[in-house]
Every structure is written in C-alpha cells, then in structure tokens.
Amino acid sequence: MAHVTITRPTTYRAAVIGTGFMGRVHSHAIAAAGGTVAGIAGSTPERARRAAPALRAEAVFDDIGALIDAADVVHVCVPNHLHAPIALAAIAAGKHVVCEKPLATDLDTARAMTEAAAAAGVVATVPFVYRFHPMVREARARVAAGRIGRLTLAHGSYLQDWLLRPDDDNWRVDADKGGALRAFGDIGSHWCDLLEFVTGDRITAVSAQLATANRRRGGRDVSTEDIVTLQFATAGGMIGSTVVSQVSAGRKNRLLLEVSGTEATLAFDQERPETLWIGGREVNGVLMRDPDHLSPDAARLARVPGGHAQGYQDCFNAFVADTGAAIAGDAPDGLPVFADGLRAARIAEAVAASARARDWAEVPA
Ligand code: SOE
C-alpha cells in the first residue's frame, strides 16, 4: 500500500505572550483553528518552560522581540499595562495582533494602538468573545430583522466572585498594572460590547457609581473598584442599566443581557449559553441552540449538533478562526477589532468621569 503523507498547510503561526488562564485558552483556540503556537513567553522563562506542553508550544523564548519575529500573529495575554508596548512592537514588525481587553489602561494609548494597526494594515482583533455564542448571534439577527420591534429597554449584569475575599489577589487590582477602572475594564467592557453588538445601538451617556468592597488586599491599599452600577441612554432611544461586580458570592461568570422592544423581549445568560429566552405575543419560552431554528449567522457558529453543549472555549475557537479568515483576506461578520477595543476605552473613560463628578457623562461616538 502506498504511503501517503498528509501535510496540513499552516497559515497561522502564532506567538502567545502570557502563559496564564488566557494564554491557555488562546493556545487551544489556535490549535483548533489549525494554527501552530510557534513560541511562547511568560512572566519568567521558568514559568514559560513549565507551561509549554499545555500550550502546545514549539519553542520557549526569553526575548519578546525574537518571539515576535518567529510568528505571523502575536497573541498578547499579559497584564493590561503591558498590552500597548508588546502590541505596538508587533505592529511595528508588521505582524497581525490579537490583544486581550482592555486594550490599554488609558484612552489615548488605546487610540494610538488602533491608529498604528490601521496605518500598518495588519489585522488587529480583541477577544470580545461572547459575540461568538450562537444564541447571541440569534438575538442579534432577531433584533436586526425587526422581530423585537423598536427597542426601548436593556438591562442586565455581569457578576463574578473570584475577588470576593480580602485575601483574593491578582495583578488586576493594582491600578498601575490593570488600569484605574478594574472591574469595568475587565468585565463591564464585555457587557457593553455585547449590548451594542446585539442591538446595533450605541451608548451615548452614562451615570455610574463605583464601590470598592475590599479596600485592602495582600497587605496593601486597593483603589480599583469591585462594583459598578451604571445607568445609560442610547442613540436609538433605549434607556437601561447594568450591574458589574467581582464580589458577588456564588456568581462565577454570570453575564446576563436582556433587551426589550415593542414586540418582544430577549434574554441571554452566558452561563446558559445554549439557550435564548424569548418573550412576546408569538412565544414565551426558551429557544435551544437547535440548528433547525437558527438564523444563518447563528447556525454558522454552531460547531456541534443541537443538544451537544458548546461554550466559552468554543467562542474563543470561533474568534481565532475568524481572525485567521480576516488575515486570509475575508471580512467575517462581527469580528471584534481594535476599533471595538477603542470604543470600550471611550465608554470606560465616560464611566470614570461620571463616577468622579457624580453626574451624567457623554460617551463620544
Ligand atoms: C476574569 O474576570 C475573566 O477571565 C475576564 O478577564 C475574561 O475577559 C472573562 O471572559 C472571564 O473572566
């Protein structure tokens, strides 16, 4: 029998910088998209070497510049204050970039990164990955088709508890590493992105309150917020509110978005991503991720048949696959790019300004 060697062309040679939880999730997604992890770097060479097998890394680099040179796409999964220098170095080297959110710890830097990527003509994406849940696409398609009617109200929350106790600690709580607005930058940004993505509308004004439940962690003072309550108004005439917290006991990654219009209401819960709640005259109940009942955009993201659960990692897999498609010259619908990261930075700046002034703040378009 003739021996056949199957060679799979690799078009996505990635560098993964940062070897924590996000580095692992990105690496799995790169492999799922048919790419390779050409190399990794971590906070210490030792850590990177230990993480290499789990990240399927071909090589471990101590020098970030050499790692960038070895790849076509650079995944930036390091603490927030290091996003800009690494992403800008990758862009300057002509590489495509996937940069974790928030893009930067301040608005001007996020703008500079977005402009640099545009000027270099590279693909630059941000993992607002909840866009890749099929039932989120279904909600978006129903809004766009007018099935919800004229939108009037949006509300929800994004609740976690991994920073509940005073001894829960992480680089994110330090403003100089994570940014002054921590919970909002880390997870509030996801909620606002999802709202605007699903509705096609834009937040124009915000009124925010911030609270720090644990003022001391790891023996030091903490200034970044644990809780945000936010009211907002949109260009399309919706009003709404959301609550963001990283100290809600028992809540793990509970992003809830509910949108009401003159015809129907839709509710999506990130912890139950296989379903979309639909209320209205036609129906009042739960739609499952059943490919027979999905719009084409939602069906495209359904990786396995209905009843076979898909979730968080699948979102990353689809996001990286679409990043790869963009690099190959396609224009995948709904791919979150640096302009979306900049948009999140604009909203964050308005949230901070509103909380400081105890007044409404405008969000520039
Ligand atoms: C931690 O809050 C975190 O890992 C975020 O950084 C991610 O963006 C979110 O998807 C899950 O929670």
TrEMBL record:
Matching SUPFAM superfamilies: Glyceraldehyde-3-phosphate dehydrogenase-like, C-terminal domain, NAD(P)-binding Rossmann-fold domains
Domain Gfo/Idh/MocA-like oxidoreductase N-terminal: 13-126
Source organism (scientific name): Glycomyces terrestris
One Pfam family it belongs to: GFO_IDH_MocA
UniProt keywords, alphabetically: Oxidoreductase
Family annotation (InterPro entries): Gfo/Idh/MocA-like_OxRdtase_N (IPR000683), Gfo/Idh/MocA_oxidrdct_glycsds (IPR050463), GFO_IDH_MocA-like_dom (IPR055170), NAD(P)-bd_dom_sf (IPR036291)
Name assigned to this protein: Gfo/Idh/MocA family oxidoreductase
Domain GFO/IDH/MocA-like oxidoreductase: start-end pairs: 136-266
Gene3D superfamilies: Dihydrodipicolinate Reductase, domain 2, NAD(P)-binding Rossmann-like Domain
Organism classification: Bacteria, Bacillati, Actinomycetota, Actinomycetes, Glycomycetales
